[in-house]
Amino acid sequence: MTAAPRDTSATLGRVAVFAALIIVLGTVVVPLPGGVPITGQTLGVMLAGLILGPRIAPLSIALVLALAALGLPVLAGGRGGLGVFVGPTVGYMIGWIVGVVVIGLLMRTGRFTWWRTALAALVGGVAVVYAFGIPVQALVTGVPIDLTALSSLAFLPGDLIKVTAATLVAVALRRAYPRAFPDRRIPTTPVPA
């Protein structure tokens, strides 16, 4: 019976740490025309999915979004309040939730390798987030979806850098501290290059 509270405390701690990481990375902002800035927050989203997995990572995203809904300035550029949930970035925020689940599920499909890590971050952290963000941005801004998708190419170089950074951090953490990853079924042998 004593294991459950400790596990719950550890889980809550992980949720809070990754929510804080996502918030801090939101201070890295490059404004772009169209209302959707380039931010560091998606790096935090990728790391949450890679490290926390498909069950716990969405809780970190939900915590960030709940704090934003309460009006706290936790989103990129210090934004918060209910207004952000009707703006051009809302689709991307929904994509974060689905994206971390996809990342976590892809990481559970086999052995932990650097290429699986990079693929999971790319698919869940970029493709899934764009799949939700671009249509909603087009709807909110009234810009045709093809033009919105074209303008979103401005995000791609930065997102590829974030995929690389997330992969490097996750692989290094897996080598140095495998217990950070909640899924104990995956062997903790050294990560093949």
From TrEMBL:
Its main location: membrane. Keywords: Cell membrane, Membrane, Transmembrane, Transmembrane helix, Transport. It comes from the Bacteria. The chain crosses the membrane at residues 12-30, 82-106, 118-140, 160-177. It is found in: Cell membrane. Signal peptide: none annotated. It is a multi-pass membrane protein. Belongs to the BioY family. This is Biotin transporter. It comes from Microbacterium algeriense. The lineage of its organism: Bacteria, Bacillati, Actinomycetota, Actinomycetes, Micrococcales.
